[in-house]
Amino acid sequence: MARMTMIEAIRDAMDVKMGQDQDVVVFGEDVGYFGGVFRCTQGLQEKYGKERCFDAPINESAIVGAGIGMATYGKRPCIEIQFADYVLPAYDQIVSEAARMRHRSNGEFTCPMVIRMPTGGGIFGGQTHSQSPEAIFTHVSGLKTLIPSNPYDAKGMLIAAIEDDDPVIFLEPKRLYNGPFDGHHELAVTPWSKHDMGEVPEGHYTIPIGKANVVREGTDVTILAYGTMVYVAEAAAREQGIDAEIIDLRSLLPLDLETIEASVNKTGRCVIVHEATLTSGFGAELAALVQQHCFYALEAPVKRVAGWDTPYPHAQEWDYFPGPKRLGSALKTTLETK
Amino acid sequence: MAEISGGGHKGPLSIHIPEPPGRPGDSPDFSHIKIPKAGETRCPDLDTKAEDMRDMAYSIVRVLDRNGNAVGPWADFLGDDQNDEVLLRGLKDMMVTRAFDQRMQTAQRQGKTSFYVQCTGEEAIATGFQRMMRDGDMNFPTYRQQGLLIAAECPLIDMMNQIYSNEKDPLAGHQLPALYSFKEHGFFTISGNLGTQYVQAVGWAMASAISGDDKIASAWIGDGSTAETDFHSGMLFASVYKPPVVLNIVNNQWAISSSNAIAGSQNTTFAARALGYGFPSIRVDGNDYLAVLAASKWATERARRNLGPTLIEWVTYRVAAHSTSDDPSAYRPQTESDAWPLGDPIERLKNHLIAEGYWSEERHVQAQAEIESEIIAIQKQAESHGTLVKGDGPDAELMFDGVYKEMPEHLVRQRIEFEKENVEG
């Protein structure tokens, strides 16, 4: 088995699907000749030709809109939006068109399309290269929203997304592209080549959409995390000496409520962590579900740890970013509640 | 600073708020529309470069003259595609479209459905264009292109069942009346959001070409909606990738109460939008069925020969209200539609067919009566399956279907909750 970075794993997923299925088409800003600003599509144009992997004008609405047209024709476009922060011009196409195509045509037209985009902070990208917009997608009926946290999952989930017959938002935590960043920005990150989840099988495999992954079993508290926060959660629990059960949600919608429920019913405590701003964030949905489904097992209020409700700052990046310290203190408070 | 010549303005700055030529109480005025004589506008070769036919974006292609004769190079280009069989069918398509609109407008007024949109005065454009589309091609229409469906022989009862949202509604009650989806008739699901589908048509055409297919796409938009960014997105992608697509703008002068001046018509033509993107554009008399056929043939042929996109601005007039929720007497002169200089498309084709000896006033009156009674019969049949307010309609649970291919658990839970709510009353 090869060791891969998350970038290589994502590229490999597209390579596998483009090789298997003539209908898979990859395009976006800078993805053709250059292979994308994060190099996720490097070599695909050379291998599959200009008509299957090409550069698009800087117009996200047109990129997604044209992708919708292609998907309704019968292709399987796998589109790159250069940064999740740039997706907003395409929001109307995603919400009013892609997400509703099947429902409004009663199944006559469908939209099997993946919209990939690097998400999240930790790279000193300021407010235009750092945001986590997952909640604006999970709020839309008709979309699936995925966010992998390691190379193995990224490849299997992207293949599953390309094979899915509905539109999928595929968020790639860019701070994890090269290694499992745990929030300790002062330290060098361990590369994926030295991490178990950097082991990526060759060829085709899938991670089923809608299945969470219990990355650490524990009894004290359940931490619901996704993307970069999975490693922040591991670091926080380790540093606080807490026997936390850490769930990597992987698929925000559809959500694996069964795994969440089983865990919280076991631990009786739940802390939710995400990079996105707190108010109306996906954590609010999770907190409501945990409250509704695990109320009688809860021994402490469900706690949310998130980015502050401010635009993502530049110089104050590490004051904004929910790192192991902030999460660790939330875990302590939750455990201290009798 | 040195004296700058030109423009003697002194004092405060101001902006320009465009106004239509007339408001209620004014006399209609269309003197701003320059109309060339029929037959006067040239017909360039299909492979003419955009830069060599810029004049076509400022002229108007017209074939039928005042006496009902087909004249000029576009009539020649049409050749046998204007034989009596084609034209009599075109006349019938337009008459059916208008009669269908009238019945459905009345049905809405009777409370049988919530909403309807007529295309009165614009029938030639969609019905004529559809003659040049083939099986497997795809139109991305707005809500005013019902003529495409009628010319494609979509069963009227299926359209009515959709309008009534009844138990036979092919869209299971999910979509607003008249926002059809008929894939087998080359008619894409209508969004209702303006402009979004322009770029989708371009993407669909790109997919066809990438697949090595021979199918073409056709995008539709109104003059007002050319203001949407997605219009320009579609134009840009068409310009960059040169897919087999025809980009239609139906310039019917009005977007609800905003005249096309609010969409920028005072400075240039809508057809001229393509000049900046560098692909061919023609401006056509949309009330002249033969001009519609000829221009549609020209543009679709270009697409089929891999010559790339063409923009067509159809110059026409929205005789009816914007929709059943609109009253144009509140914002435009009462008699404006009578003053429209390009006339009525049905009358003009009828006069041509009479001049050619294929038709007569008597046959026209008879055909009109037959069409009306046929539509009434179909309407009765449709209403036997219910209307929005009569009958059971589509099952309520169907609203949960088709959100995803397979229903995810959270929706299953909501459907069960909904069912309980209904059992408990």
- From the N-terminal CA to the C-terminal CA of chain A, the straight-line distance is 47 Å
Please identify, by name, the CATH architecture of the largest domain in chain A: 3-Layer(aba) Sandwich
Q: What is the number of E strands of chain B?
A: 7
Instruction: Using the coordinates above, name the CATH class of the largest domain in chain A.
Output: Alpha Beta
Strand adjacency order, main sheet of chain B: 1-2-3-7-6
Secondary-structure-derived class of chain B: alpha/beta
Q: If helices are DSSP runs of H or I spanning 4 or more residues, what is the number of helices of chain B?
A: 13
Under the CATH scheme, the architecture of the largest domain in chain B is 3-Layer(aba) Sandwich
Inertia-based shape of chain B: globular
The CATH superfamily label of the largest domain in chain B reads Thiamin diphosphate (ThDP)-binding fold, Pyr/PP domains
Tell me what the structure shows:
The complex is a heterodimer of chains A (338) and B (425). Chain A has a seven-stranded mixed beta sheet with strand order 3-2-4-5-7-6-12, sandwiched between helices. In chain A, strands 9-11-10-13-14 form a five-stranded mixed beta sheet, with helices on both faces. Chain A has a two-stranded antiparallel sheet with strand order 1-8. Chain A contains twelve helices and 14 strands. In chain A, helix 8 packs across helix 12. Chain A has 338 residues and is an alpha/beta fold. Chain A has two domains: 199 residues, Rossmann fold (3-Layer(aba) Sandwich); 124 residues, 3-Layer(aba) Sandwich (Rossmann fold). The mean pLDDT of chain A is 97. Chain B is α/β, with parallel strands linked by helices. Chain B has two domains: 334 residues, Thiamin diphosphate (ThDP)-binding fold, Pyr/PP domains (Rossmann fold), CATH 3.40.50.970; 30 residues, no CATH class. Helix content of chain B is 37%, strand content 7%. In chain B, the strands form two sheets. Chain B has a five-stranded parallel beta sheet, with helices on both faces. Chain B has a two-stranded antiparallel ribbon with strand order 4-5. In chain B, a hairpin with a 2-residue loop joins strand 4 and strand 5. In chain B, helix 2 packs across helix 12 and helix 3 crosses helix 9. Chain B is globular and about 80 Å long. Chain B starts with 72 loop residues before the first helix and ends with a helix. The chains are: A alpha/beta (338), B alpha/beta (425).
